[in-house]
Structure of N5-carboxyaminoimidazole ribonucleotide synthase:
Amino acid sequence: MSIPGQMPVVGMVGGGQLARMTQQAAIGLGVTLRVLARSPQESAARVCADVRIGEHTSLEDLRAFAKGCDVVTWDHEHVPSEHIRALEAEGVACLPGSAALLHAQDKFVMRERLSAAGAPCPPYAKVPADAPLAALEEFAERAGWPLVVKATRGGYDGKGLWIVKDLGPESVELIGRLVDQGVDLMVEQHVPFRRELAALVARSPYGQGAAYPVVETVQRDGICHEVIAPAPDLDDDLAAEAQRLALDIAERLGVVGLLAVEMFEVDGGVVVNELAMRPHNSGHWTIEGARTSQFEQHLRAVLNLPLGSTEPTARYTVMANLLGGDDPDIYPRYIHVMAHDPAVKVHFYGKEVRPGRKIGHVTALGDDLDEVRERARHAADYLRWGPETKERS
Amino acid sequence: MSIPGQMPVVGMVGGGQLARMTQQAAIGLGVTLRVLARSPQESAARVCADVRIGEHTSLEDLRAFAKGCDVVTWDHEHVPSEHIRALEAEGVACLPGSAALLHAQDKFVMRERLSAAGAPCPPYAKVPADAPLAALEEFAERAGWPLVVKATRGGYDGKGLWIVKDLGPESVELIGRLVDQGVDLMVEQHVPFRRELAALVARSPYGQGAAYPVVETVQRDGICHEVIAPAPDLDDDLAAEAQRLALDIAERLGVVGLLAVEMFEVDGGVVVNELAMRPHNSGHWTIEGARTSQFEQHLRAVLNLPLGSTEPTARYTVMANLLGGDDPDIYPRYIHVMAHDPAVKVHFYGKEVRPGRKIGHVTALGDDLDEVRERARHAADYLRWGPETKERS
């Protein structure tokens, strides 16, 4: 920005699909997106001109990456807090900053902070490594079974959350294994929810806020399967309450950029589940379904540009995640899906197809929710399974 | 496409803003866009991962570029026909092919072909280099003054078209200079048009066609200033006729990809002005204003993928071109424009700001045409002139 007429450089740490889709927005805005990827084959590295190869766990790599960036932001939560603090101490503009981001990195810190602030959270407790079973037993007496055991940071073997039904031998073995591996654990009530919602907001350093319509997220096998925008038949007051809650959390935590608040809808209100401070799977629908995509909004927020309109472009937008099927040769199925529905939008992440891997998403929009859901579902299912769709899904 | 699950590579010759915006579409489709640019500073080269530096006038550079591309297509019309024919002879899939593209490269060839096919064209004639003034005189006797003198290919000093009012000393000097420079000239009637329209269509190798709503293009000082989609108050029958004409031309010429037909609206119909076989300035509005952007559509067409829906997303979409002003430090004005109108979309092309240079465009959409035009205009004018907008524009 120091050179007249030159546009800023935003550095995004991580080369996944969120950075990839952010590049589409950056091209339009005229902003340069620099990506720190672990290899040139990563999703975003395949589509950006300014790619640096390095490890997000290496302070040296982060330092070299940040040089020349006007702002550094994150494609994921796995950058060590101490590295972000070190960059901040050296004058790098990290947004969201380490203090805010910690609440998306450490679930126990998040619970402590939000509970203290009066945000609706489920009962929770630390699970000490020296007496985990006793702690769970005691917690279950208060909250009832089943319990949700979570790794406070990261996870183990790709998982960060386990539903524990009782303290039978299987659970005892699981908890023992997690503790042996040094995974820090916490426990939460298994909230008896009606459905899952997500409230996506943006906040700029000036404190300007913008809220997207609250969406319903449909999980299957622990993976976000479908997002419906707006959440159908959601009470107007509750929708406004969820948006206010997300904006309030963003302000209290000093978030700059996007904040996605995953929530449970329960009798009489909502309960906070998880936080993410970046573009989020629950916001992919905004590419076609909102005047400003979440990716553009995140860039605007971290650059302290005025935020864009979050107005929806259609009555309903449905996003279905696209998982890899058994047959990696997806192109013939792609042709079928395009021919079947000229208005459905398929987004591929440039990833090799592997069974169960999230390789893209599909968006449909229109006035009739059932029809829109069916269109998005058909496209995602067909891309995964082909003509066997009906038998498999 | 031979490797299971791998997506095709589209090579685009030319590194301008059309290739740049095509990259946004390619990222979503999961298609790799490879760009042949003259320097890493070109508009598209700044945002693509797969950039080859070379000259579009060098057959060797084109050959090396085409290797590994599933299809080669064009960001502009300046690739020599003989080079495209040579690539085709070597088995490279060039789309649109040399035979079709010639009609977008040579205005005289286009007139001969379209007139023979019965498409509405203005009276025209060749201007022989050995007796140019006599030819103009004779043509004016039939068609009246003023005349439109055109370079059949390329142009001279950045211009390809001159309005000649008479054969006074100024005109004599101009024609003499053009002939001396070896510019091949033709002459056309100065069509007494009501307004200018453009019909954008796509055609796939299978022969599938898709037509966008016909738009009005507003020129100022010979530069496209504003595009209104759809063309306001255009007679339904005339709109359908213009779409049919464009689809018919695409089929007759064997165009694969996009075809933009610039037209004059005259009493009783339309007259063809120019052809372009690539994404076109008159179609930039489709990024926000149509279900499928022209850039996505071009990729789908040249890859022989089923074409996408051309349905508009709003009642009116207005695109205003953004020209550089005297002050290259555009960023503060960008902030103002975003704050002023959170729903307007600014697209920057990554070009240095120079007075009068096309550096981006602005899109607004909505139900009230006057309001939408005013919003697009304000944004483009303010970005160019800043607070002096009112005095300058």
